[in-house]
Amino acid sequence: MDHTLRRLAPGARIADSSFDCIFCTGTLQHVTDPLRVLAEIHRLLRPGGIVHVELPFLQGYHPDPKDYWRWTLAGARLACERVGFEHLESGTHIGPTSALVWIAVHYVGGLLPGRLGSAVSHASRFVFRPLLVLDRLWRHNPEAQVIGCGVYFVGRKAEAPDPRMTRA
Length: 168
Known about the structure:
alpha+beta
């Protein structure tokens, strides 16, 4: 967002506390400083505002244009809390079957060279796709955080203190 804003309006800056809610999905693994991005999200949220962050865990490398990071559930929570978000909820948002299918598709395609490998990889998606329904069985299983494809964090920016309550 900021990159686009800078191209459209050089020198422009979005005001502090401009948003009630910010979703950040499939983004932080592609930036060089994810804590800085989380801090910027914190700045942009109004007090009491909600953040929803989705991060890869056991997900294959996918440069778009770069791919730097993976997070455990504990690491995602730590990063979000470190920049000031209060934890509301977190868990696995893409299950372990998705992780297995992602790996299997690329594994099968990698067994063969060039275009043939690419074609086999794409065809195997149709073979493995029906298995993705198994992720529903993992939805509330605590073991999903150990082998899931992606994790999420929902947090709140702390309410601003009431200035009437501040002692001089």
